[in-house]
Amino acid sequence: MSNNNFFKYIFAVVVIFLVCYTVYIIFQNKDDSTEYNLDQTSTLSNIQTELRFAISGMDTFNPLKTNNRNVMELTKLIYDPLVTLDGNYKLKYCLAEEIAKTDEVTYVIKLRKGVLWEDKSNFTADDVEYTMNLIRHGGFSPIYYENLKHVAGTEVIDSNTIKIVLDQSVPFFEYNLTFPIMCKNYYGEDDFSSSEKTPIGTGMFRISEFSSNVINLVPNELYWDVSRKPMATKININLYSTTGEAYAAFKNGEIDLLTVKITDIENYIGTLGYNKIEYKTRNYDFIAFNTANELLSEPAVRKALSLAIDKNNIIATCLGAGYVPSNFNLDMGSWLYTRDLNTEIDTEQAAQILYNNGWERTSTNWVKRTENGTKKIEFSLTINANNEQRVAVAENLKAQFASFGVPVTINYLSADNYAKAINNRSYDAIITGIQNSFSPSVNTFFGDGNIANYYNGEVAEIMNVISNTTDEHILHENYNRLFEIYLEEAPYIGLYRETDVIVTNQGLVGNITANAFNIYHNIEKWYRQ
Length: 529
Known about the structure:
By secondary structure, this protein is an alpha+beta fold. The chain has three domains: 49-62 and 70-75 and 203-273 and 506-529, D-Maltodextrin-Binding Protein, domain 2; 79-202, Alpha-Beta Complex (Dipeptide-binding Protein, domain 1); 280-499, Dipeptide-binding Protein, domain 3 (Roll), CATH 3.10.105.10. 30% of the residues lie in helices and 25% in strands. It has helices at residues 3-36, 69-74, 125-137, 184-187, 243-251, 265-269, 299-307, 311-319, 347-356, 388-403, 415-424, 443-446, 457-466, 472-489, and strands at 50-56, 83-85, 91-93, 96-103, 106-111, 151-158, 161-166, 205-210, 214-219, 234-240, 257-260, 274-289, 323-325, 360-361, 366-370, 373-376, 379-384, 408-413, 429-435, 492-505, 508-509, 527-528. Strands 11, 12, 13, 17, 18, 19 and 20 form a seven-stranded mixed sheet that branches. Strand 8 and strand 9 form a beta hairpin. Helix 8 packs across helix 10 and helix 13 runs antiparallel to helix 14. It is globular. Mean pLDDT is 91; it is low at 22-35.
């Protein structure tokens, strides 16, 4: 073989080797990215699997006794509930494997088998009953008491089955079973309410270290859901005395994620160097019309009024950052909110609705001539005079309605008289608000005794159907029809909803989403780079 041919041969071998090696590396990285859910810019060689979170002003790390929001959020990583909720507030089984509603007030829950506590003892129905008794009768006012206030009793059927009996029917009661379960044997004869022991859990992570300035979590090797092995090998939860200290630590790059109020962001951490995820909270304000009022009993009048106001103007003028227009109690992100109810201001359509129903616009009013004389569209709007925010909103609404030709009188009441007005339904219209349940229940708005005195035969039938089925197709079909009726008859006007924000370090990677139930959705896919 000549020297030239020899060098050509060697060159060809080297090229083939380099091509094969390159293909191997590409596919190796592709496999790594697929297995570990890495983004396109990451490989196993340039990621960090230690996450850094924070708690400010911690009271206790016991999930049933804490009143600290950061603790409530983080303990979801350690302590499993019977059921959990996904990013769309849809129920998912967790420690419960099946829930059967045997009559209006009775539920039989089959528990997941093979679940172990951190001490390797078995999770059983005794743990569920123990936890429910702590919440109902513990005497330390746990945050989950409202979830179980209608539980009349429990009965352990066997180690994997428990029966719950309510004192009345509760729509979508299964959604109340989101409280963390405690280990009965771990506490033994100890008084849970006074015990200083930090509970053990069955969740994705467990506590490996607990000191005065940091809590360290590591993956729970006994975690029952093997499909959700976390990429994070450690979570450092740094403890701070004040929120300001936590903000400073985030700004300095020492924390990967922080829950903040949107009004605090720029003041404490500036405007650059982080990602912001804003989500809708459960706090929802609205107007309820008293449909027993002769004028406001007319759906056309109510619908016209609902179209005549600018909600964005209310937020800009009276509220500022941290609020979004809202139109229905499920629009915080529920899986059953499938129809766009975003009714923007449309005074032309509002006027046309009134014209079509026999109303005429004078220079100052809408009037209708009847056999009994002439009537005008005017009403009083009741508010709690001690709520400065709603006072401002009411005055803004008064001006907006006046420009549409509808005089409104604001009825300023003391807190006590306001509560009496609600109880007695003694108002034309009222500005009020609720903290939404996590369930898709609309009973507050359309059930018996609702604050609008609203009744519609078809709606009553829909309420009966959705209260007695778990079939998703039937639920979607009936909720969509309910939305159609709501838009046409407008017994309420949704006004606005509060928002919260999480900010994340730009190095934090993963499918990072948040809602009011859980800010750590998909945490098993999170890492740093």
